[in-house]
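Two proteins were folded this term; both appear here.
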Amino acid sequence: MQDASVHPHQTSQRRLAVVSNQEPFAVIVGCSDSRVAPEIIFENVSFHYQNSDKNSLKNVNLTLRAGDNIGLVGNNGAGKTTILHTISGLLKPTSGEINFKNHSISCMPAHKITAAGLAQSPEGRLIFINLTVKENLEMGAYLRHNYAEINEDLEFVFSLFPILKEMAFQL
């Protein structure tokens, strides 16, 4: 995509941000409370894949706050996954700055971003296929060391999604 600038349009608590104004395009839609401090801030973030003549992201400016309910929507190739991978450190921006809780994470390795409290949940096809459902859930706690709290959190997840408890030991 040539231009992936985000242009926010806010009406009361609802927000629409256009990530690109040409095909393919992506938009971020959702609700936000501007009284809440920003958690993630993109400032003029661009990303360019090495073997491509196109920018995947160009000058993206985006503010996400705690409690935001958003959806990142767009066509294939619009930059949705690139935005998520750039936030989580799997891709490094070619320019611009990404801040998480007032600290730059633009050059931080992905594992340190996760340790700082920012993680990405993989889509269904990206789970560890040789692990059980429970083991996949436990992977989300690999940086934690308090096993009592981990088990408590697993039970909480199982209470929200009882089917996961029934399938806990299935691959």
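Next, the second protein.
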Amino acid sequence: MDTYVECLVKRRTDGVTLALKIGVVLASIALGLGLFFVCVATQLLSAFGILALALCIWGGWMILRRFELEFEYILTNFDLDIDTIIAQKKRRRLISFDLRRVEQFAFYDEARRRQLESANVNKRLDASSHVDGETWYLLFDHKDHGKTLLLFSPDERIRKAVQAASPRAVL
């Protein structure tokens, strides 16, 4: 019997991301206005100043859109693929692996975080929603990266499929 499950998770904006967004907005406006006033003060064509202002605001908007992250978890039989979706436009494969290689699968709480900080892990990936109480972790041996720690926010269907694929890994 074939298994196919999809789950889409949107990353919540935390305090650091909000501060970065505010910084990008202020920097793009300040740079645009600065270029505009330099063009007007040096008696260059003010059209260049308006163009520079518009380009700075557009560039800031494009940078802001990169903060909008979603993750798509696609489970096909024993393969879990995780894609990053940026600004609902650009898709990039974050990782793909076989669930039968999972060593640990459990809820990610403060005690687990402290325990896994000292673990010998080659790669750490965060594909979680950053919502309290929704983060789980997988510790597995990846064919390219070695021992990998993945933080993610699976729904009930994906959790059951991981448990079925690697019942000994469930803690």
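The mean pLDDT is 87. The CA atoms of residues 124 and 149 lie 5 Å apart. These notes refer to the second protein only.
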